[in-house]
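Handoff note, outgoing to incoming analyst
You'll be picking up this chain. Sequence as last confirmed:
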Amino acid sequence: MKALVYEGPGGKTWSKVPDPVIVDPQDAIIQIDTVTICGTDLHILGGDVPEVEPGRILGHEAVGTVVEAGEAVTGLRPGDRVLASCVSACGRCRYCRQARYGQCLGGGGWILGHRVDGVQAQYARLPFADLSTHKLPPEVGDETAVMLADILPTSYEVGVLAGRVKPGDTVVVVGAGPIGLAAILTARLYSPSHVIAIDTAEARLQAAKRFGADVTVEPGDDPREVVRSLTGGLGADVAIEAVGVPETFELCTTLIRPCGHVANIGVHGRPATLHLEDLWIRDITITTGLVDTFSTPDLLAMLGNGQLDTGPMVTHRFALDDIERAYEVFADPARSGALKVTLSRA
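Most recent structure output, in case you need it:
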């Protein structure tokens, strides 16, 4: 088969590699039908995730069809159409028993495209297949469903739920890329009074409005002044960091009111300064996290019922064989206008 192989920082190729095989009785092999590229893949290529070794097949967001299931897999059979979760779960360790699957001690967690070969390929092996896949109903299309492999549960769990968004809150989302847009979309489920989007790209600010932001901060605006003017000088109740650079994290800590929450979603490759000399007295809660994907069934139900619409996130579509071009488009959103790109089997 062919797959996108990581060759070290800055390097990748769409190459012939051996077909995946069942390694553990809990594995399943899927044919990849639709896959997407994540900002985390760009962080890997930028050298921000040194645990990823050269030779690794990238990717952790896919929809596929089961072609083979290990003898210990009880809930899947060949022909089943499934969402492959970005997080795998052994189901037995202490963290899995607490639904903290991202911290799995039994060989799971974020492993696809990280510790084991991922899904940007024609076929993929999924460990712990019963707990790490979700069967898809016919009314949910592949392109819609693949948004639930990572960005929707990540934004919802690590941003909205960890930030404790509640009715009437003022929520600031710093970064209006796919993760930020998903945070805006799912924050709206809690009826905040304002959702403020901050980004440097006009196209992404326009997208933020379509996803539910009622206020956008243009590059020339002072975000602190905008937030203060909407909150009687107090600051935001919740600030969600959705970029992963020091400047945006530090900005979030200046936008938050006393007793507020800063929820960091972004993947950081460089240190950020934590100004405890300013924050300690303001009762600020700062959370970080890797998604656990415990919310995926609920999000899938909302998707099927029309309560969530992920369709506008997909701006570009490619054949799977054109994945290197897809990476170029996704990595240059200022020029391409890309939000999410999808790649499908011919």
